[in-house]
Amino acid sequence: MRNQKGFSLIELLLVVAVILIISAIAVPSFLRSRMRAHEANTVAALRVIVTGAIAYSSAYPNLGYPAQLTNLGGANPCTPAPSQACLVDDTLAQGLKDGYTFQFTGDGLTPSYSFTLTATPQVVGSSGQNMFCTDQTAVVHYDSTGAGCSNVSPTL
Fold it and tell me: In angstroms, rounded to a whole number, what is the distance separating the alpha carbons of residues 102 and 94?
């Protein structure tokens, strides 16, 4: 019996313990990295939407900025019109991307002179920690409390 080759139970338990320790260190770091990537994609999406809104107001000067976010999108094949301008991806125009919900609010005037755009994480801590907002000035702000965009800081 002494000449059998293989690993003892203690050796296997030691290997499993090392793997668990390494995964306990790596998984939270991976989750934080993924959350930061979602936040970076959200800021980029906000900038795409603002650029689309500015292009919309240039293409349809009698309407100004779009009344709602869906006016910027359009399903493929897309023919530009005021109701679907084909300026942003239709998935983004539906208001969801990377665990964030986008809310576009126009001023209600015709032509429209201003709007606000907010991005709120669907699951705080998983999809993102910060709430982001911007308006027609294209300056993106963030709020780490998620309470709203009244007390915000500009992003870098």
Answer: 8
Q: Which pair of tokens denotes residue 34?
A: 């993924």
Question: What is each CA distance from 154 to 52, 107, 113, 129, 150, in whole angstroms?
Answer: 21, 22, 22, 15, 12
Question: In the structure encoding, which two tokens stand for residue 122, read together?
Answer: 């669907």
Residue 123 in tokens = 């699951």
At 150, is the pLDDT very low, low, confident or very high (cuts 50, 70, 90)?
low
Rounded Cα distance between 70 and 27, Å, is 37
Whether the Cβ atoms of residue 146 and residue 128 lie closer than 8 Å to each other: no
Predicted structure pTM score: 0.81
Q: Which residue matches tokens 């084909």? A: 86
Phi, psi of 115 (to 5 degrees): -160, 165
- Cis (ω within 30 of 0) for the bond into 61? no
pLDDT per residue over 12-26, tens digit each?
999 999 999 999 998
3-class DSSP assignment, residue 52? helix
Tokens of 83: 């109701």
pLDDT tens, 29-80? 888 899 999 999 999 999 999 999 999 999 999 999 999 999 999 888 889 9
Sign of the CA dihedral 37, 78, 95, 114?
positive
Q: Which residues contact 60 (CB under 8 A, 6 or more apart)?
A: 82, 85
